[in-house]
Amino acid sequence: MRWVPPYGIAVVTGRSMEPTLRAGDRLLAAYGGRPRPGDLLLVRLPGRPLAVKRATRREPGGWWVERDNPDEGVDSWVVGTLADEDVLGVVVVRLSRLAGAARPAAATAGALAGALAAAGVMRAARRAGGAAAADPTRRRTRCRRRRWRTGRTA
Hints:
Radius of gyration: 21 Å
Order of helices and strands: EEEEEHEHHEE
Number of strands: 8
Largest sheet: 6 strands, antiparallel
Shape: globular
CATH topology of the largest domain: Umud Fragment, subunit A
Oligomer: single chain
CATH superfamily of the largest domain: Umud Fragment, subunit A
Strand content: 25-35%
Number of helices: 3
Strand order of the largest sheet: 1-2-6-3-4-5
Helix content: 10-25%
Number of domains: 2
Structural class: alpha+beta
CATH architecture of the largest domain: Ribbon
């Protein structure tokens, strides 16, 4: 059995989910999440690449999904009900839009950790602060030059 990460990032292309999502939006998806009507889902449409669609209702054969933009894209009105195995994940949160230049990995990891914390998925980890992070008797104070330094409170 192959291990699947519990979360992944998907980048939106196309206009089928406008105005909710636009091209370049990054989405945090929980693989294997339990969809509910109204959720945004990461789905596999027959003969097409992965797509983001809105779950509208549960059908006997799977999920009925629709697009937000009626003038663009493909949804269950074209391909019918999607089987449960074609629903790959539930969108947890939209991350910031991609700019023209690629972002460094540290910025992406920070955005991911912030999104997970904001979504209540995991506790935000403290920034590496050495002894200040581990020792509750120490606090952080601000210097004149707006840099952090650590000082003893007791």
